[in-house]
User: Fold this.
Amino acid sequence: MTADDLRETSAALAGRALELPELARAGTVAAYVSVGSEPGTRALLDALRARGVRVLLPVLLPDNDLDWGVYEGEGSLARVQHGGRMALFEPTGERLGPDAVTAADAVLLPGLAVDTRGMRLGRGGGSYDRVLARLERADARPALVVLLYDSEVVAHVPEEPHDRPVHAVVTPSGVRRFGQEN
Assistant:
C-alpha cells in the first residue's frame, strides 16, 4: 500500500471503531500502536484520548508478557527494539503492571487474521494469550476487538485449546460481530 492508502485505511478504521458502542461508552481502552504493515492505530488512539478515554498501551516484557502504561499523545511514545524482533512503540511513562489491563472496558487486539467464528490468529509470541488468560482469571469482561484489513477476515484459522474468540473485528469497510454478548 502507498502512504496515502495507509492514511486512508487508518482513518477509515478509526472511524469504524469509534462508532462501536463498546468504545463509545468505554472509560478505559487497552490498545496498541500499530507497527509495520498492521492497520494504523494512531488516529484511533488520538481520537479516543480526545474523547477523554484513558488509553493503556502495552510494554513488552522480557518473558513476552505485557506491562501497561498510559498513552499521553505521540510525544509519550518511544521506539523500543526488542532483540532481533521488530521495534515497538511503547509508552514512556509510569508502568502500571500486567494486571492494569483488567480495568479496561475494551481491549483492542492485534492479529494476523480472524475467522468467521471470531478466532484470532496472533503473531505467535503468546503476549495477548496471556492478556486474555489474565482477564479470564480476574473475571474481567471487556469487549475484545481486533483491528484488521478486510482481506484478513478469513474462513478458518488454526486454534489452540487456550484460544478464545473475540467479540468483534473492525476493518476499514465495516464491523463484524461474533456470537458472544458483552
Remarks:
- The mean pLDDT is 91.
- DSSP finds four helices and twelve strands in the chain.
